[in-house]
Amino acid sequence: MENEIDMNALGESIVKVLKTIFDPEIPVDIYELGLIYDVFVNENREVKILMTLTSPNCPVAETLPMEVKEKVSSINMVKDVELELTFDPPWNKDLMSEEAKLELGML
């Protein structure tokens, strides 16, 4: 049971870190923007993140995934981080949270 609580806490820590990373062109964090498609954590505390960018030509295509990997790797409980970048499905504004849409005046 204790291990399960650790996994929940770890998941929350990962989301908290993801919410500190911003797309430089849009004043909203990448989690609320819907750029994070999935986060998997196994019992060995290895994390796999499936994410996208607002476009394949995004100016931060090189740096943003590295920032995500580095920041999530810095969490004490995380043993390893694998990051997969995908453009399937392509990102669109519908993936944004209500909070992000409100922040950008889209509601």
* Helix proportion: 25-40%
Task: List low-confidence stretches.
Answer: none
**How many discrete structural domains?**
1
Please indicate the percent range of residues in DSSP E strands (runs of 2 or more): 15-25%
Q: How many H/I helical runs?
A: 4
Number of strands: 3
Q: What's the pLDDT, averaged over the residues?
A: 91
With strands numbered from the N-terminus, the spatial order across the biggest sheet is: 1-2-3
In short:
The chain is an alpha+beta fold and 107 residues long. It has 4 helices and 3 strands, in the order ααββαβα.
Characterise the protein shown here.
With 107 residues, this protein is of the alpha+beta class. The protein has one domain: Fe-S cluster assembly (FSCA) (GMP Synthetase, Chain A, domain 3), CATH 3.30.300. It has a 3-stranded mixed β-sheet with strand order 1-2-3. The longest helix has 17 residues. The N and C termini lie far apart (42 Å). 20% of the residues are buried. It holds the Pfam family FeS_assembly_P. This is Iron-sulfur cluster assembly protein. InterPro entries: Fe-S_Maturation_MIP18, FSCA_dom_sf, MIP18-like. It comes from Paenimyroides ceti.
